[in-house]
Every structure is written in C-alpha cells, then in structure tokens.
Design a protein that fits this description.
The complex is a heterodimer.
Chain A lengths: L1 H27 L6 H9 L2 H32 E2 L3 H7 L8 H12 L4 H10 L14 H25 L3 H9 L4 H30 L2 H6 L4 H11 L3 H25 L18 E2 L2 H37 L2 H34 L3 H11 L6 H27 L11 H24 L4 H9 L4 H30 L2 H6 L7 H10 L3 H33 L1
Parallel strand pairs in A: 1-2
Chain B lengths: L1 H29 L3 E6 L7 H11 L2 E6 L2 H11 L7 E4 L2 H9 L9 H6 L11 E8 L2 E3 L24 E2 L6 H14 L1 H13 L9 H10 L4 E3 L2 H8 L4 H7 L3 E3 L10 E8 L6 H11 L2 H11 L2 E2 L8 H6 L9 H6 L1 H11 L3
Parallel strand pairs in B: 1-2, 1-3, 6-7
Antiparallel strand pairs in B: 3-9, 4-9, 4-10, 5-7, 5-8
Helix pairs in contact in B: 6-7, 6-15, 7-15, 9-10
C-alpha cells in the first residue's frame, strides 16, 4: 500500500503546488507594500468594501440556507401533488447566471420599469409619492444571489436528508420527542456538514461576484479590487486586496473545521430502512407546494419569461451560424472542465482519506481558496506563471531549433482549463468530500479484512455510494463554467467566444434586449446536465431504497 | 490500483489537452498573412469592420476581446512572445497606460498623420484615435428650463440638489471626464467641484448610461450625464419602450462659452512585440479610411476623426458643439488622481 501511495503522494504534491501558484502570486504582492495607496483606501472606501462584503456574504449565507434546506426537507420528507415536478424545478436556478437575473429584475422592478410605471400611471403618482423597495441595493443583491445560489444547499441537503435512516425518527418518536425537536436536534445536526458545505459555497460565490454588485452599485471587495487595479492603476494593491479576501475565506473554512473537530458523521448505510415520505393532503399539501415553488418561480421562471420576451424581439438578428459555434464552444468547454476538475478532486479527496496528514490537508485548503477569488484576479494569477513557462519554452526552442513555438500555455485553451480548475476545484471537492465522509472507514476495513482488494473496495463500495456526489460535483462545475465570465474573457485564445462572453458584451454595452438570446442559450444549455444528472441521482437514490 | 489508474488517466488527459492546445495554437500560426487584434471594443462593434478588411486584403484577422486593462495585463505577462499586433481600446487612458508600460511602438505613417488631427494622436506616434465620443448633459425639457443650463461647473449650484443622475465613478467615462477637468482646473478646484456635484445627486450612482437617461424620463432626476451614442442607440433600439424613453430627453452641450464639452476617444496602438507589424499598420490605415469611419458613425453613432465623413442622422439631430481641446495623454496620466478625488468626494 505504502509503495503504491508514494508516487501518488508525489504527483499530488506537484499538482497541488501548480494549482496553488496563482494564490501564491496574489500573496506575493505584499513584497512591495503600497503604503500611500492603502492610506487613501483606509481613509475613504475600505470600510465600505469590508462591511458590504460581510453583509452580502452573511445575507446570502442565511438566504440560501433557509431556502435550500426548507425545500430539501419538504421534498425528501413529504409526498404531495406536484412534488416530482417541484424537485426538478428547485434545481433550475442553477442554470441562471446571477448577473443575468440581476439585469432582468432591474428591467422589471426599477423605477423606470413596467411595474412602477404602471403604478404611477394608474394612481397618478410621481417620484417620491410612494415607497417601492430599490432592487439595485445591497438587499437586492442578497435576494437575487440567494435566489440563484440556494440550489448549492438544496442539492447537498436533499441527499443528506434522504439518506437519514427511518430508525432515527422511530426512536425519536418512541422517546416522545416533538416534531420540531426532531428537526432541530436530530435531523439538522446530522445534515450539518452538507448544509454548511452548501452554504459556504454560496457565500464564496457571493464574495467573488462582480457582475451583480457592480451593476447594482454596491461597493464590495471585488468592485474595490477592480477599481484599485483599473481606476487607480495599481495592480499590486489590487492583488493585496484579493489576498485579504482569501484570508477571510480561509478563516471561515478553518472555523468550520474547528467547530466540528470532535464530530465525525458517518451514516450506517442501512439503505433498506430509509424514511418513508409522509403523505400530505389539503391545505398542508398546498402550502408545501407553494413553499417549494416560490424560489424556483422567482429564481428561474419569471426571469426566463422576461428573457424569452426580449429574445423574441431580437433573436433573428442574433442567431446565425456563429451563434451555433458559440453554443458548441460553451458546451464543450464546460464538459471538459467538469471532467478534469472532478478527476482532480477525486484524486485530492482520496489521498487525504488514505493519508490524512497535515501536508495533504493544507494542500487541499490552499487549492480550494480559488473559489472565493474573483475570476479576473485568478486569470492574472494564472497568466503570470503560464507566461513564464511559455517564455522559457520559447527561449529553449529558439535556442535549439531556431524557431519559437508560440504561447502554448497562456495563449490556448490550456490557460482557461487551468484557471477553471483553480476557481472551481473547491465546488467539486466539497461535494466529493461530503460524499466520502458518509462512507465509514469501518466499511473499508471490514471489506479489506474479508480479503477484498483496494480495487474491489473502490468498485463495489465507493463507486456506488459516491456516484451521487460525483454527479452533483460534475453538474455544479459544468454550470459554473458555463456561466463563468471574467476569467474566460481574459484568457480565451484568438477567435474563441462563449455564450457568457457574448451575452456579457451586449449587456455591458447596455443592450439588454440583444443580450437576452445568448443568455437564454446559457440557461438552456445549463438545463441539459441539470436534467440528465438529476435523473441519474434520482435513480441512485431510488435504487437504494 | 484504481487510484493509480485515476492518476494515469488524469495525466493522460492533461497531456492530451496540452497537445490539443498546442495543435490549436500552431493551426493559428500557420497562416502567413495575418494580424492579431486585442480589442476592448466589443466584438459586435469591431468584427464587421475586421471582416471587411480581411475580405479586401486577404489578410486574416484574429480577434480576442476583453476589458482594456485585462488585455494590457495579458500583453504584459506575455512579453516579447505575445502574438498580439494591435491593441484597441475605447478610451485614451488605457492607450496611455499601455505606452507607459512600454507595450507599444511608434508608427510612422503618412496616411494616419493626414487622416487624424494631431491633437487626437500621440506625439511619438504610439497611439491613434479612431473615433470620438462626447459626454454632454441630457435633460427633461418639461422640467428643466434650458436657460438654466450652462456648464458642468454650474451643476454644483444648490438649485440642482437632488436632480442629477450619473453612473458610478468606477466607470472609465466618468474617470476620464474628471481627469480632463483636473487638467484644466487643477486639483483643488476639481475636488471642490466633485464634492458639491455629488451633493446634488438624486440617488446613489447605479447602472449604466442608459439607466441614467431612463431615470430622467421616469422623473427620478431632471438631468443626466451620458455619452451620446447611448442615447442614439436607444433611439435606434429594437425595443419600442426604449425608443419612447429616449425621445423624451434633449441634449445640452455644456461649456460652449469656455473650455468645451468633454470628449473621449476610442483608439488603437501597434504593440511592441507585434509579429505582423506591416499588416497591423495596414489595418490601422484601413480604419481611418472614409468607409470605415462612416461605418463607425452609422453603426455605433460615434463621431469620426476623419474630416468630411458624415455623422449619423441621429447624431446630427443632437447638434454640433465645441469640444474640449486638451492634450489627450494627460487624461490617461491623471486617471488615478481623478479616482482618488472621486473617492474623497464620496462619489460611489
């Protein structure tokens, strides 16, 4: 076993080091302190950045936790008319990029949008005569992001809830524990690793968001990074700001680890004894239905209809042969990235499971920091080491062959896939580790002591039990890459565009109506894996029960 | 065993991807007659022109679009092996920044020198303006007496309290506008202006230029500062609601008695490492030809730099105006100071 592992450990170390390079580049910026600029930031805008970012992350955390776990609990515990439909619907917002939904809701709800205009026209009001919440605010950003990010919590929570054995409920009922107490003291704590993971992912996504907060005029760390870099022309100070953001995320992740240092949740794998869903009728069925419908309705259906309406006006102008290429590019890129990233995170997760040492743990942590770093910053962090490698390769080839080979790393899709790996490894890793933590080491031990080879343990125990998590990981990475914008924008090779880039270019040129067609295409392409993978996950869960 | 297989698989995949990627890059570099463009102009607003150039000359044009600063970063890290020949930006500040970072080279072309007025190109021939954009005041005629409008400076009067809409100071057009004012009025006066100007905002800045125009029409504010091509774009929009909104504001050209209305330019530079320098110059020269200039004017409602090219009908309706006359490179150099001033003034 040891002999087998050491080359693996070595390979992992190298891989981890390469994937950590951009984060190292960002932290290395402190070598040149920018005292004067920091004084300016401290005395003017830094406070806003910190407070708004914290509020945004916490707000989105609470929002996604509430929505995601409520829907997951109802769907996995109760049976009611429309349940099957709703458990599909609940995942749909995953395919909706936050900046797109922000654009559409602004179009609908803003002062000059149709709703407020109708109100003013029908009641004869003018500006200031009535109160209407401003969508373009911190609160608006929290709500918008919660609406599209809650599936992160929902996916993980649903798996966790549906895998809780019936024996738990039976025992609790026998001991006279109330329904409420059962939820708060048994069910939720058991699902906590999954819930926290989902919430943490949503929070990191919120912290790294640029498109939405920028459009809403909320000054956060990310807008601050861009402003410092582009406006003040100080790339070093921008990198230093990014490193602060990284540190903050690291603290949150460490805190979560610390808070569950004494707890190890491993479920018993008694799949024959899963809880039966309770049938609901009448008003209770209706309220369950409505509760599960609101979020997907607001997070997906309403904005999709708005996009459809806009696309209906402009699609003839925007759909051509080039458009098909865009769809193809986006799909292939997302698929390739999902495959690579899932394999990478399986590699990391397994090495950590088998060799749970400090080195592997901190490696895993550094690598997963990428998720909270804005895509643009990652892109620059990627460009620096890749260009260095390219320069080296070209120098060597000029020396030996008298011919330069061009930018084989930084100028090709390699750079994009590299950046995606750093940015989204965390999404896949969290899912896979949550899955892996539900397979007890005693299962491995039992199987091994019965003479099964490690390969057989993997094939007959881990693969079937992990399938759900691996599929969820692939799905999340796929849609994330599909929606990814800033890194794609900077790193893509010549003549290569994606749907997200096209949609953003039009939207940032304030041509929302034209941007609707590519935006709608992102949503549709994103739906393909959502449908396929949910189907596969359902089959696995059903197969177990 | 499976673990090892996984490891092999990922290596095999990585190797496969690298070779695929290098094949792609080779494929791109086989063509002898080509020119590589890094453009901060959006694809929709540059590709048609590049396609025409390619059809006419047989030179293949490869394009990457992105934000100017990101493209500059990319140029910077790619160094001398960068494939880029031309950098196109939508503001002069970024061209100046690229020149300062030693990423551009001088071009000596009589075609460019004849077509572009000296004030609109770099003294050393490093960058050239391709189009001009203007940033006037737009107002709601039923609520604003045009006699009360005069200059940007006058917008600090208490009369305008709660009546002005303008986008965030993170936006390059505002940064350039304040940088231009810094050049003409100096630090103290500009800071004082910014502080008073911000006090008159109707709402915290949000959205883009079109949103400010919409806010004026809906009554949230009475005047907005926005680039003319946004208003023109709304008037030409496929969305009739936008057309209707845009038809309800008028354009006022400020500072006509003194320093002129603020303008910015879009422009281009040949990169220092340009592997296809000759083709790059050809493309630049193509972009200041009459047809190309007319295309810009007609498609995106920008003002041509070449004399004698007709403006679009919509732009003509907004009227002629006296533009600022300052050394454009100063706008780029003063950008950081402008941002600091806006930070101090509390301009979000």
């Amino acid at each position: 076993m040891r002999a087998l592992l050491d080359p693996l450990q070595g390979a992992l170390l190298i891989l981890g080091a390469i994937l950590s390079l951009p984060v190292v580049v960002i932290f290395a910026s402190w070598i040149a302190p920018q005292t004067e600029l920091w004084q300016h930031l401290l005395s003017t805008v830094l406070q806003d950045y910190v407070i708004n970012s914290l509020l945004l992350a916490c707000g989105v955390g609470i929002g996604t936790l509430l929505i995601g776990s409520t829907i997951a609990y109802i769907i996995s515990r109760y049976d009611f008319p429309g349940r099957t439909l709703l458990h599909w619907f609940a995942l749909l917002p995953l395919a909706m990029p936050a900046y797109i939904i922000a654009y559409t809701y602004t179009g609908v709800l803003d002062f000059s949008g149709p709703i407020q205009t109708t109100l003013r026209d029908s009641f004869g009001w003018g500006y200031g005569d009535y109160y209407f919440p401003d969508i373009r605010s911190l609160w608006g950003a929290i709500i918008i992001m919660s609406l599209v990010l809650y599936p992160y919590v929902y996916m993980l929570a649903r798996t966790a809830f549906s895998e809780q054995p019936a024996s738990l409920l039976q025992v609790s009922q026998m001991m006279g524990i109330s329904k409420f107490k059962y939820i708060t003291q048994v069910s939720l704590p058991l699902a906590r690793p999954a819930l926290f993971t989902g919430t943490a992912l949503a929070m990191m996504e919120a912290l790294a968001d640029y498109g939405t907060v920028q459009y809403f005029g909320v000054a956060t760390f990310t807008t601050g990074i861009f402003r410092t870099w582009f406006g003040l022309g100080n790339g070093l100070a921008a990198a230093q700001l990014s490193s602060l953001l990284c540190t903050f995320v690291l603290i949150v992740l460490l805190f979560e680890k610390w808070s569950r240092r004494h707890i190890k949740y491993y479920h018993q794998g008694q799949h024959h004894n899963l809880q039966k869903r309770k049938k609901l009728t009448g008003t209770r069925a209706l309220s369950a239905f409505v509760l599960c419908l609101v979020a997907p309705l607001l997070g997906f259906i309403v904005p999709t209809f708005q996009l459809l309406y806009w696309a209906g006006i402009t699609y003839t102008k925007n759909v051509d042969a080039q458009f098909i290429t865009l769809v193809f590019n986006s799909f292939c890129l997302a698929l390739a990235a999902a495959l690579i990233i899932v394999i990478l995170s399986l590699l990391f997760a397994y090495t950590r499971r088998i060799k749970n040492n400090k080195l592997n743990n901190s490696l895993g942590q550094t690598v997963s920091l990428g998720y909270a770093i804005p895509g643009t910053v990652i892109a620059v962090g990627v460009l620096v080491p890749l260009s260095w490698a390219d320069n080296l390769v070209n120098m060597l080839s000029e020396h030996w062959f008298n011919n330069s080979v061009g930018l084989i790393f930084s100028g090709t899709l390699f750079a994009l896939l590299f950046a995606y790996s750093i940015r989204f490894l965390s999404v896949a890793s969290h899912n896979i580790e949550a899955g892996l933590s539900r397979i007890t080491p005693s299962m491995d031990n039992a199987a091994r002591s019965l003479g099964a080879s490690p390969a057989r343990v993997l094939k007959q125990i881990h693969v079937p039990l992990l399938k759900t998590s691996v599929l969820s990981a692939a799905l999340l990475v796929f849609v994330d890459v599909l929606k990814e914008l800033p890194a794609t924008l900077i790193l893509r090779p010549f003549n290569f565009n994606t749907l997200a880039v096209r949609s953003f270019e039009l939207a940032s040129d304030e041509r929302l109506v034209d941007a609707a067609t590519p935006a709608l295409a992102i949503v549709l392409v994103g739906l393909i894996p959502v449908v396929l993978i949910t189907h596969a996950i359902d089959k696995t869960i059903k197969g177990k029960s | 065993m499976h673990l090892l297989k996984n490891c092999h698989l990922s290596r095999a995949l990585a190797i496969g991807l690298i070779s695929l990627a290098s094949t792609l890059s080779f494929m791109g570099s086989v063509n002898a007659e080509e020119v590589n463009v890094y453009s901060a102009r959006k694809e929709a607003l540059i590709k048609p022109l590049l396609d025409k150039f390619a059809a006419e000359t047989g030179i293949e044009v490869n394009l990457v679009t992105g934000t100017a600063d990101a493209l500059i970063s990319r140029l910077n890290s790619e160094g001398k092996y960068s494939p880029a020949d031309i950098l196109i930006t939508t503001d002069v500040g970024r061209l100046v920044r690229a020149k300062e970072q030693d990423l551009t080279q001088a071009v000596d072309s009589s075609v460019l020198a004849e077509a572009i007025p000296a004030t609109l190109r770099d003294d050393d021939g490093h960058w050239f303006s391709l189009t001009m954009r203007a940033r006037p005041i737009m107002y709601a005629p039923e609520r604003v007496d045009v006699a009360n409008l005069s200059s940007m400076e006058a917008l600090t009067d208490a009369d305008w309290k709660g009546r002005i809409c303008i986008r965030s100071s993170s936006n390059i057009y505002n940064q350039s506008m304040v940088a231009a004012m810094l050049q003409q009025k100096g630090h103290a006066e500009t800071l004082d202006w910014a502080k008073k100007f911000v006090k008159n905002f109707a709402r915290p800045p949000k959205g883009g230029d079109r949103d400010q125009i919409k806010a004026v029409v809906s009554g949230q504010c009475d005047i907005a500062i926005a680039n003319t091509y946004y208003l023109a774009g709304m008037l030409d929009s496929a969305d009739t609601a936008e057309q209707k909104i845009a038809s309800q504001v008028n354009v006022f050209w400020p500072n006509q008695g003194d320093r002129g209305a603020h303008i910015n330019v879009s422009g281009a530079a040949v990169t220092k490492s340009a592997p296809n320098r000759g083709n790059a110059v050809k493309l630049l020269e193509y972009m200041v030809r009459k047809e190309a200039q007319a295309w810009y004017a007609e498609t995106n409602h920008e003002y041509p730099v070449l004399d004698g090219v007709e403006w679009s009908e919509t732009l003509t309706q907004f009227g002629t105006f006296k533009a600022e006359d300052i050394p454009l490179h100063r706008v780029g150099e003063l950008n950081a100071e402008a941002v600091k001033i806006m930070d101090k003034a509390g301009w979000k």
